[in-house]
Amino acid sequence: MILPPATLGMLGGGQLGRFFVLAAHELGYKVWVLDPDTNSPAGKAADRHLCAAYEDFAALDQLAQNCAAITTEFENVPADTLDYLAKFLPVRPSADAVGICQNRVAEKMFLRNNDIPHAAFIAVNKADDLRNAPDELFPGILKVARFGYDGKGQARVTSREEALHALQGFHNEPCVLEQMLTLDYEISVVLARDEHGNTKSFAPSENAHAKGILDVSISPSRFTAETAQQLAERIAEQLGYIGTLAVEFFVSRGELYVNEMAPRPHNSGHYTVDACATSQYEQQVRALTGLPLGDARAHSAAVMVNLLGDIWYDPTQPGPDSHGHYREPDWGKLLTYPNLKLHLYGKHHARPGRKMGHFTVIDADPAKAHEVAMAARAAIG
Ligand code: ADP
Ligand code: MG
């Protein structure tokens, strides 16, 4: 067991890393963050911010020398970085697990090989793969294998011709072509798994997206928790996963299909900070340090609303003011609700679509939490 005040290393400096830093600090650990952005939200909160590239071996050596264990908040950390660090200290999750989750081809093959329900797909390496694709994949979605997020690197295609055209648009990068499912709704399960194989799943959340970005997340979800949690736990076990893992699902005609995995805490698990005995971030600390996992039960229903940079814009103004600034939203409108927990990430510049913060409304009554969350969202714009 790695005990406080040991220093933990975090690869990635976004808001997920920032919440990890806060959870680790509460327990008395120190955290060093590696991120190339001088203004990274986690870097600002960390004991030390190594402002360097993920492939900067001098920076990796510094992490290895000063930290007791390493984790990540970002699935696109190069596998070589994780492999290199793993020569010196525990790296959780492993490079192998992250490697599967960061590549859609590897991810879908993993689901297929482990008999986990998923939408029909093929790997696309060249135009001929699309010409030979089975008819059942149309209409479908062409997705680039690497670096897609928030709906980026995806094209909805109704025909082979459209798919070929979209592939060109992606510069013939490796892709997957996936069958388009009719969605009832989408859910996710966040879980933590420790080095002994014990798992604790949080209650699933039901996720609504706007323009490809998570908008509102409601927990508990309508879907039977156990069924989704069992599938997520099977995935974690097959990955030999240690840490916090998120699994996104489609619910289509009442059936569950795994969409994708994230080898890190997840936006839809923010609610665990305010509504659960242990947050997804504390679980990440616990799994990393070899502490027993905490109680994952929710004490309240929760509705989380993402706050994107768009609300920094004055809707009556076409752009920034003459100083190039956007107005700060009137947080007083949110902070008047006693059951609303506001989280701002301290990002320097608001941009449309950029995740700047979120709030979570908790209540014993799910309907009441939803009502307050929607009223609060309307109030802030
Ligand atoms: P991202 O990495 O951008 O989150 P996803 O694969 O999760 O990529 O796709 C983004 C969204 O697009 C999903 O949350 C879902 O709403 C929709 N989508 C993706 N794949 C499918 C599919 N096969 N059928 C129906 N909708 C899909
Ligand atoms: Mg997704």
TrEMBL record:
InterPro entries: ATP-grasp, ATP-grasp_carboxylate-amine, ATP_grasp_subdomain_1, PreATP-grasp_dom_sf, PurK, PurK_C, PurT/PurK_preATP-grasp, Rudment_hybrid_motif. It comes from the Bacteria. Its EC number is 6.3.4.18. The keyword ATP-binding applies. The keyword Coiled coil does not apply. Residues 108-289 form the ATP-grasp domain. Pathway: Purine metabolism; IMP biosynthesis via de novo pathway; 5-amino-1-(5-phospho-D-ribosyl)imidazole-4-carboxylate from 5-amino-1-(5-phospho-D-ribosyl)imidazole (N5-CAIR route): step 1/2. Keywords: ATP-binding, Ligase, Nucleotide-binding, Purine biosynthesis. ATP binds at residues 104, 143, 148-154, 178-181, 186, 209, 259-260. Belongs to the PurK/PurT family. Catalyzes the ATP-dependent conversion of 5-aminoimidazole ribonucleotide (AIR) and HCO(3)(-) to N5-carboxyaminoimidazole ribonucleotide (N5-CAIR). Catalyzes the ATP-dependent conversion of 5-aminoimidazole ribonucleotide (AIR) and HCO(3)- to N5-carboxyaminoimidazole ribonucleotide (N5-CAIR). This is N5-carboxyaminoimidazole ribonucleotide synthase. The gene is purK.
